[in-house]
Amino acid sequence: KELVSRLIHTSGSRRDHPFVPINCGAIPSELLESEFFGHKRGAFTGAVADQLGLIRSAEGGTLFLDEIAELPLSMQVKLLRFIQEKSVRPVGIAQEVPVDVRIISASHKNLRDEVAQGRFREDLFYRLVVIELYVPPLRERLSDLALLAQAIVTRLVLGRPVTFAPGTFERLMAYDYPGNVRELENILERALTLADGDLIRPDDIRVRR
Question: What domains lie within the chain, and their CATH numbers?
Fold first, then answer.
């Protein structure tokens, strides 16, 4: 999901501005507001310096909200207000700060089901679902694997030329990737460590059995 979001970002008019990914399920609930909206020094115990916040750090660019269904309802309300008002209020500051970002959100859960179960706000859902894309798991689009692998390796080696020996893509395509694209990235990072120089061979591909 993040790779697709990065591609959307780099292909659009905001490409020269930040791409800021946030895993909504990885931030403790008590820190969500401060992490998203920022805070002023002294706003609470432990706030030893001003913090811009993840939303404002994406100014002019793209904010990618991964696993958005993991946000608690209390935070969903605040996120909805930010989307509607296009401004944030950092913790400890009275005035609103305008923000210009594009939002891309993703979830492995069915958000319509989450709305029906009362776990996701319906008004936020309709604010987010302007254009909806379904990204199938990697095992359902193995025809894309060679292009994905080349793009991932190019990013990992910062553009240094790396080639794949005959049979390497076939070895990669024989696996079903329960961990999806992130697992492919881990496999390729390991292969680069094992590779002799700038050539990745089939024997460098180590997968779980």
Answer: 1-128 (3.40.50.300), 138-204 (1.10.8.60)
Short-list 13, 11, 4, CA closest to 60: 13
Q: At what angle do helices 145-156 and 180-194 cross, to 10 degrees?
A: 60
Q: pLDDT digit string (tens) for 75-110?
A: 999 999 999 999 998 888 888 899 999 999 999 889
Helices (H), the chain: 2-11, 32-37, 54-57, 73-85, 111-116, 122-128, 145-156, 168-173, 180-194
**Region 42-60 average pLDDT:** 85
Which of 102, 79, 84 has the alpha carbon at shortest distance from 8?
Answer: 102
Which of 87, 3, 73 has its CA nearest to residue 32?
A: 73
Q: Token pair 């309300």 is at which residue?
A: 77
Tokens of residue 183, six digits: 């697992």
Spell out the residues 6+ positions from residue 58 whose beta carbon is closer than 8 angstroms to its own: 17, 18, 19, 20, 99, 101
**CB-CB contact of 88 with 37 (8 Å):** yes
Query: Alpha-carbon torsion 110, 114, 116, 117, what sign?
Result: positive
- DSSP state letter for 111: H
What is the value of pTM for the model shown? 0.73
